[in-house]
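To close the section, here is one more complete example, presented without commentary so you can practise reading it yourself. The ligand is CO-5-methoxybenzimidazolylcobamide.
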Amino acid sequence: MILEEISLKLQAGKAKDVAALVQQAIDEGIPAQTILEEGLVDGMNVIGEKFKNNEVFVPEVLVAARAMNKGSQLLKPLLVAEGVKASGKVCIGTVQGDLHDIGKNLVKMMLEGKGLEVIDLGTDVSPETFVNTAKDQNCQIIACSALLTTTMGVMADVVKAAEAAGIRDQVKIMIGGAPVTEDYCRQIGADAYTPDAASAADKAMEFCSEMSA
Ligand code: B1M
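Output:
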């Protein structure tokens, strides 16, 4: 089955093959969301498990990540709804000290798919950069991604920085990433934790319509 092939080629780091298979899957009419989750994300999850067990190492993970990006770029136009007017503004980034950006890029893609305007701050983003951007650009939402247990604490600093800057009541702070939990969200006083990119986009839409009401 083509989705399994995509997953296997991604695990092997074959970016060109992944791109060709993703295109084929699109042409066959498989929904972009399904290709993303059952092909690309599935492959990345296998790599993650192997990385954890020392069966593959950083170079293999990097080529898999490159293949993932190549495949998801092809899906982007399909996930991004055409002609939808921006109904809110979000600044997104991976927190300071953390360079993982695949999940963050997926969240960005899904937010854009809902018609939201997204300012991508990249990786290794300081609490001050999140807060200053939200303030200067009038963002309704700050979206933070963290993949390391050692960096998720920066999310608490983002909440504190927003309080210190006096914008805490004007901005919703959304958090996510593999080590992040609902409990942690409550503990640091952020506004929402969502486990995946699609639910992050739904929640962001909910916040934006609440805030514009
Ligand atoms: Co890193 N890494 N890594 N890594 N890496 C993990 C995260 C790890 C779990 C691997 C492991 O040991 N099993 C482990 C963390 C352990 C821990 O903290 N508990 C780890 C480690 C230790 C490290 C290094 C320290 C390794 C080293 O150098 N010794 C190092 C740190 C570098 C740094 O950041 N300072 C490192 C480096 C790297 C690479 C550079 C090689 C590469 C990153 C490439 C890149 O991103 N451009 C990499 C990768 C690829 C991984 C794994 C294998 C895959 C991560 C990924 O992209 N997953 C990962 C293992 C794993 O997660 N299974 C691992 C796919 C992606 C789609 O999922 O990002 O979780 P994810 O996003 C999901 C959800 O979490 C959610 O939506 C997405 C899907 O819908 N989500 C949000 C994400 N952000 C959200 C925000 C939201 C809402 C939802 O709201 C705002």
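Once you have examined the tokens, check your reading against these statements. The chain has nine helices and five strands. The radius of gyration is 17 Å.
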